[in-house]
Amino acid sequence: MSFERPDGHHSQRPGQVKTVTSVSNPVIKDIRALVFQRKRRKEAVLFVAEGLKLVTDAMEAGWPIRTLVFGGELRDHEMVAKAAATARARGALVLDVSRAVLTSITRRDNPQMVVGVFEQQWAEPESIAAKPDALWIGLDQVRDPGNLGTIVRTADAIAPAAWC
Which of 33, 87, 89, 106 could disulfide-pair with 68, CB 3.0 to 4.6 Å? Predict the structure, then answer.
């Protein structure tokens, strides 16, 4: 498997850009499993973010990125180039893929052109110091990345004390 837990390291050569045109590529199969199989996400302790805004926000917030995937037609897009450079600098595998590959690893009919695979980060609620009048946001089974993006942007504007 290309995706192992953080202590098992990434089996692909990190920090490189690789062109992928086949949906049969092992890394693409692994990403597809993460997207469509909750059990696989839980085992790998990874999650997938779809869309340039979500991916760049996650990287800016310091989430450890394992793999960045982008549609080849965005190769020269300034924000995508910056995200790819940041991902490479952090040791992530960067994949320049065909539209068919991108469609195979996204949940939407109109696929997002950028996808990121990130390490999950968990904290026990007891480890978070509660503050009087603090706002907490809890999410359960959010299915649409667009809805999650809206929640994240709205929450960012009101600065919650914690997410759960």
Answer: 87
